[in-house]
Amino acid sequence: MRKFVSAGAAFYMLDKGERLTKREMFHIYDPVRFVIWPRRDKWDVLERVGNDWLRLTDRLFDSEN
């Protein structure tokens, strides 16, 4: 797992088979969190809003960037 923080937003990039721990899922010091992980041969992304993880789009991306 890789983590990148910029201007209060935390981005977690997971490798195939990795999962977020409870600490990463519920960490209070990163007010904006995104998780990016491989799904099939593309990449998927979710954003943490309050206590919920929301799908930003139904689209899958060609890279984690």
Give me some keywords for this one:
mainly beta
Q: Unreliable segments (pLDDT under 50, ≥5 consecutive)?
A: none
Sheet with most strands: 5 strands, mixed
Shape: globular
Radius of gyration from CA coordinates: 11 Å
Please indicate the percent range of residues in DSSP E strands (runs of 2 or more): over 45%
Strand order of the largest sheet: 1-2-3-4-5
List SSEs in N-to-C order: EEHEEE
What is the count of helical runs?
1
The CA-CA distance between the termini, in Å, is 15 Å
What do you see in this structure?
It is a single chain. The protein has 65 residues and is mainly beta. It contains one helix and five strands. A five-stranded mixed sheet has the order 1-2-3-4-5, with no helix packed on it. Helix 1 links the parallel strand 2 and strand 3. The longest helix is centred in the middle third of the chain and has 5 residues. The model has no long low-confidence stretch (mean pLDDT 85).
